[in-house]
Write a structure and sequence with these properties.
The chain has about 300 residues and is mainly α. It has one domain. It is built from 10 helices and no strands.
Length: about 300
């Protein structure tokens, strides 16, 4: 639908709604995401929307960083024991809040860069270093929390490399496929993946893809990204509340209300206004000239 938000939404959903252990939710989500991103990455590769050199240079940083992130998780679990789940939930909540803010920034404020966008990047030394550093940050965050990779990579591709939107989505998804396989393999070795749960999520994602594609046609990616950003921020606040932080319930409730208002505006109010405009224009065009109108010669 938007190219972002899969891991950021699925992991808190598994924790908050289904009560899955946080580290298992993270590992399972990564395994599920590896399959879906592979399918999406292959499609984008066939359509020519992947900057292959840029994707591979990002993977140079992201793959080892993701494996290192899983190792850090194991160290934290052995060190903190019973407090591990709370620490992990707080870390995930922080990443979701950052991801939501970045997604909202992309939807509202990064449109000014459109006139500077380009189809490909010349991979000189500076571009290679930037790609590796971006990959390092994203890979570590993904290995630890399973969240944030889509938004972080997308914003990085826009700000650092100024790619056109189709290349941003294609390169993001293709690189994510490489990264997710590495991270999920590390979580499989660590015993953090529930394969039955991952299979059920895959089955449920099929109608989700169909629904998302249709919503994109009716609503538009910009509105969907803004809505997604509110969902991510709300999920982050809900996780902080679950971890024991005092987050007022009315603050969390504001986000579903804002999302509902945006959906109603996009699907109901805006189409009605658009339908009325042609009628008003036609009425104005057909109105007879007034008494003061000049006579035709």
């Amino acid at each position: 639908m938007t190219g972002i938000g899969g891991g950021s939404l699925m992991t808190p959903l598994l924790i908050l709604v289904f009560g899955i252990k946080p580290v298992t939710a993270i590992g399972t989500d990564l395994a599920y995401g590896a399959v879906t991103k592979t399918v999406g990455g292959w499609r984008h590769l066939r359509h020519g929307t992947v900057d292959m050199p840029l994707s591979l240079w990002m993977a140079v940083g992201s793959v080892p960083a993701a494996i290192g992130g899983v190792y850090v998780l194991e160290l934290v679990e052995r060190t903190y024991g019973d407090d591990f789940d709370t620490i992990l939930i707080v870390a995930l909540a922080v990443v979701l809040l950052i991801t939501g803010i970045l997604t909202l920034t992309r939807a509202l404020f990064l449109k000014a860069l459109h006139d500077k966008e380009r189809d490909s990047v010349t991979m000189d030394r500076r571009a290679k270093v930037a790609a590796i550093l971006l990959g390092l940050v994203v890979g570590f965050v993904l290995g630890v929390t399973s969240a944030g990779s889509g938004a972080l990579i997308a914003v990085g591709l826009i700000l650092l490399f100024r790619l056109v939107p189709s290349r941003v989505v294609g390169t993001d998804i293709f690189h994510a496929a490489i990264l997710l396989w590495a991270a999920s393999a590390a979580h499989i070795v660590a015993g953090n993946v529930d394969f039955a749960l991952a299979g059920n999520i895959l089955l449920g994602s099929v109608p989700g893809v169909w629904l998302g594609s249709n919503l994109t046609l009716r609503v538009g990616a910009g509105v969907l990204r803004t809505t997604l950003s509110l969902v991510l921020i709300g999920a982050g606040l809900a996780l902080l509340s679950k971890a024991g932080l005092d987050v007022p319930g009315w603050v969390i409730a504001l986000f579903p209300a804002a999302i509902a208002a945006m959906v109603v505006n996009s699907l109901v109010i805006q189409p009605r206004r658009a339908a009325r405009r042609p009628e008003a224009s036609a009425t104005t065009a057909e109105a007879p000239p007034g008494p003061d109108a000049p006579a035709e010669t």
